[in-house]
Write a structure and sequence with these properties.
Radius of gyration: 26 Å
Bound molecules: adenosine-5'-diphosphate, magnesium ion
CATH class of the largest domain: Alpha Beta
Number of helices: 21
Structural class: alpha/beta
CATH topology of the largest domain: Rossmann fold
Order of helices and strands: HHEEHEHHEHEHHEHEHEHHHHHHHHHHH
Shape: globular
Oligomer: single chain
CATH superfamily of the largest domain: P-loop containing nucleotide triphosphate hydrolases
Helix content: 55-70%
Distance between the termini: 41 Å
Length: about 450
C-alpha cells in the first residue's frame, strides 16, 4: 500500500467515522509492509491494536480493498521504531506522480479553523511569539520583516501562522495572503520547472501581499529551491510586503542553508517559542477540555488528572492534545469516568514514551547547587541537618522523577539502606504540606530539572 493510497483511505475513513473517532483511532496508525496479501498497519500499543481491530477492522479493510484489491486481510502490529525519517525528495516526486487535479497555484494551503488566536493559550514560554504574531496579524505597516518564528516540534508555530492568516483574512480581506509549507513551495517550484511555467511561478509569488512559509528548514540542502526562495523573498521585501517564516530552529542554526539566506532571514524579528512549562501545559489542557466537552457534554475530568498529564507529558503540545482526545473518546466508549485509573490504562504508551530521562546524578547535582553544598557532602555520611535535608530533597526527587527503585537510589546516595530513602521521601512529603519554603524549593528544582 503506498502512502498516497493510505492518504486517500484515511480521508474516506474520516468522513465515515467522524473527526473524533478518526483522530483517536485512525490518525495514530501508520502503514507497514504488505506480505502474502496481508497488509500491516502499525499501532502504538497492543491495547490500541485490539480496539481498532475489533471496531474498525472491517471498515478499514473495505476501504483498503477499494484502493488495492491485492490486500485480503489487515493485521495490526505494534511498531517498535517511531516514524521513519522521511526522505523528502521522493515524497515530493510521489506527489507529483499522483494524478492530482492541477491546482491553482495561488491557493493558500488549507487553514485549520481551530488554529485561531482565540484557541491559543498564552504563557511565559510563548508570549513574545504570540505578541509578534498578533502584531503582524493587524496588517498595519510592516515594522519587522520577516517575522521569523522558531521552536521545537508541537510548540505552536503552525497554529500561530494559521491564526495570522485567518485574522488577516478577516481584518484585511483585500490583502493577498499566501500561506504554505516550504515543502509545498518546493513542490510548486519543481512543478513550474517541469511544466516550463517559471514565469507564472515568479509572477504569482511576487504578487502576494503577505507570504507565509512554514517549516523553512525543509529547503536546507535543496539548492535550487533555496535560490528561488531567496529571490522571491528579496523581491517581496523590496516591495515592503510582509513575510512570515517558521522553522524548527534559529536561522543561524539551520544546516545547509546558504549564508546569504540565513542573514536575510535574520534581518527582521526573530522570536522563539520556548518549551512549554507546567502552567502553560495545564492552561492548554484546561482549554482543550472545554473543547472536548462540546462533543462529550456528560464527561467530567476528575481532579488531579490534568495536573498529572501536565506534569508527565512535557515534550509536545500535540502529544498532550492527543492524550486528551483519546481519554475522552475512550471514556465515552467504555462508559467510564476520566480518572487516574482510566488515564493510566488508556495512556500507558504515551506515558511510557514521555518518561522523564532525568538521572540521579543530575538531581544530586542540581540539589546540591541549589542548597550550596558540595556533591560529596550530599552523598557522604555527614548527618548534619544542613546536609541531611538537601539529601532528603534529592532522594524525594529521585523517587518522583526517575523510575529507580528505593534500594537503587539508596546505593547511589553513598550506599544507604532503602529504608533510609523511604524515610527521607516520607519526611519531605510531610514537609511539603506545611513548609512553604520546602514546597517552593521543590517546585523550583523540579522545573529546573524538567527544562
Ligand atoms: P508546530 O508547528 O510548532 O510543530 P503546531 O502549531 O502544529 O506545532 O501545534 C501542535 C498542536 O498543539 C496543535 O494542535 C496546536 O493547536 C496545539 N498548540 C500548541 N501550542 C498551543 C497553545 N499555546 N495553545 C493551544 N494549543 C496549542
Ligand atoms: Mg508546524
Amino acid at each position: 500500500m503506498t502512502q498516497a493510497q493510505w492518504t486517500r483511505i484515511r480521508e474516506r475513513l474520516r468522513s465515515t467515522i467522524g473527526q473524533n473517532n478518526f483522530q483517536t483511532w485512525i490518525d495514530p496508525l501508520s502503514v507497514g509492509p504488505v506480505e502474502d496479501g496481508i497488509g500491516t498497519l502499525f499501532v502504538p500499543t497492543n491495547f490500541f491494536g485490539n480496539y481498532v481491530s475489533q471496531n474498525f477492522a472491517d471498515l478499514i479493510l473495505h476501504e483498503i480493498r477499494n484502493e488495492n484489491d491485492s490486500i485480503m486481510r489487515v493485521k495490526f502490529a505494534v511498531n517498535r521504531s517511531s516514524t521513519p525519517a522521511s526522505s523528502e525528495m521522493p515524497k515530493v516526486m510521489q506527489k507529483m506522480a499522483a494524478p492530482k487535479a492541477a491546482n491553482n497555484p495561488l491557493n493558500t494551503a488549507p487553514l485549520d479553523a481551530r488554529f485561531s488566536f482565540d484557541n491559543f493559550v498564552v504563557g511565559k514560554p510563548n508570549e513574545l511569539a504570540h505578541a509578534a504574531a498578533r502584531r503582524v496579524a493587524e496588517g498595519g505597516p510592516v515594522t519587522f520583516n520577516p517575522l521569523f518564528l522558531y521552536g521545537g516540534v508541537g510548540l505552536g508555530k503552525t497554529h500561530l501562522m494559521h491564526a495570522i492568516a485567518q485574522e488577516l483574512h478577516i481584518r484585511k480581506p483585500e490583502l493577498n495572503v499566501l500561506y504554505l509549507s516550504a515543502e509545498q513551495f518546493m513542490y510548486r517550484f519543481v512543478q513550474a520547472l517541469r511544466d516550463r511555467k517559471m514565469m507564472d511561478f515568479k509572477e504569482i509569488f511576487r504578487s502576494v501581499d503577505v507570504l507565509m512559509v512554514d517549516d523553512v528548514q525543509f529547503i536546507a540542502g535543496k539548492d535550487s529551491t533555496q535560490e528561488e526562495f531567496f529571490h522571491t523573498f528579496n523581491a517581496l521585501v523590496d516591495q515592503n510586503k510582509q513575510i512570515i517564516i517558521s522553522a524548527d530552529r534559529a536561522p543561524g542554526e539551520i544546516k545547509d542553508l546558504e549564508d546569504r539566506v540565513k542573514s536575510r532571514l535574520q534581518c527582521g524579528l526573530v522570536v522563539d517559542l520556548h518549551p512549554t512549562d507546567y502552567e502553560l501545559r495545564l492552561g492548554i489542557l484546561q482549554s482543550k477540555v472545554e473543547n472536548q466537552q462540546k462533543n462529550y457534554p456528560d464527561l467530567e475530568v476528575q481532579p488531579g488528572v490534568l495536573e498529572f498529564l501536565a506534569h508527565r507529558i512535557t515534550s509536545n503540545v500535540r502529544v498532550l492534545e492527543g492524550a486528551l482526545t483519546r481519554l475522552f473518546a475512550f471514556a465515552s466508549l467504555v462508559g467510564r469516568e476520566i480518572d487516574m485509573d482510566l488515564t493510566q490504562d488508556c495512556l500507558a504508551d504515551v506515558l511510557r514514551a514521555s518518561e522523564r530521562k532525568v538521572s540521579i546524578e543530575e538531581i544530586q547535582r542540581k540539589v546540591s547547587e541549589h542548597y550550596n553544598i558540595r556533591l560529596s557532602d550530599m552523598v557522604g555520611p555527614k548527618r548534619l541537618r544542613s546536609y541531611a535535608r538537601p539529601r532528603q530533597v534529592a532522594m524525594f526527587l529521585c523517587k518522583k522523577m526517575t523510575s529507580r527503585s528505593l534500594p537503587e537510589i539508596g546505593r547511589r546516595f553513598g550506599g544507604r539502606d532503602h529504608t533510609t530513602v523511604m524515610h527521607g521521601v516520607k519526611r519531605i512529603e510531610e514537609l511539603k504540606q506545611n513548609d512553604a519554603q520546602i514546597a517552593e524549593d521543590l517546585e523550583l528544582l523540579r522545573r529546573a530539572l524538567e527544562a
